[in-house]
Amino acid sequence: MIELRVSYRDKDDVLLEDSLESKNPHELFSIWFKKASERGDVRQPNAACLATATKSGIPSARFVLLKAFGESGYTFYTNSESRKGREIEENPIAAMTIYWDPMDRSVRIEGAVEKISESESTEYFDTRPKSSQIGAHVSRQSTVIASRESLSELNKKLEIEYADKRVPRPSYWNGYRIIPKTMEFWQGQSDRLHDRIVFERAENAAEKQIASHAGENGWVFYRLSP
After folding, report:
1. Is 9 within 8 Å of 104 (Cβ atoms)?
2. Ranges for the Pyridoxine 5'-phosphate oxidase dimerisation C-terminal domain (predicted)?
3. CB neighbour list of residue 171: distance below 8 Å, 6 or more residues apart
4. What is this structure's pTM?
């Protein structure tokens, strides 16, 4: 697998503490996300790997779509009866990683997870294409099914049923929000001395007695060895 090694950035193109575009991690994420969204070679800038775990610590990870972000948290939607939904219910802590390959950048977010309000979930559900709305009813996510055909048959049935009327949000389809406790901004370097800048809530860093720089809005930041 040695031939799969790729080059990243030039050693002079580094991520320095003094040159951060914002000392607020949410604003910095927004800047990076905007740059990724404006590129033609990043097909889905909001694709994120979400990691959850059971109460006993058995982990699982999958890709979801980040649908909103900001000071209040990082939001995604899913079936609450799915594996990730069940794991969040019993262990409401999660990690999310977004990787923008053409930019040699990624952001890792860790924190508590909370379910957003029913009204927020419904408001977003109503904006989805009808095919996606029907799909939420067809798929009882993470359950065993007999065949692909069984899904297709139910989908056709519901397409007829809802042809001329609104598709209601299933009670099990909800939005979740990660409230970041830690956010890490990573930038790859060809010499493998990658840049890793971590933002953490000031009170948490103080408990760990970590030497850090003052950020904004109650955040501090520091550099980790690659």
Report:
1. yes
2. 173-226
3. none
4. 0.91
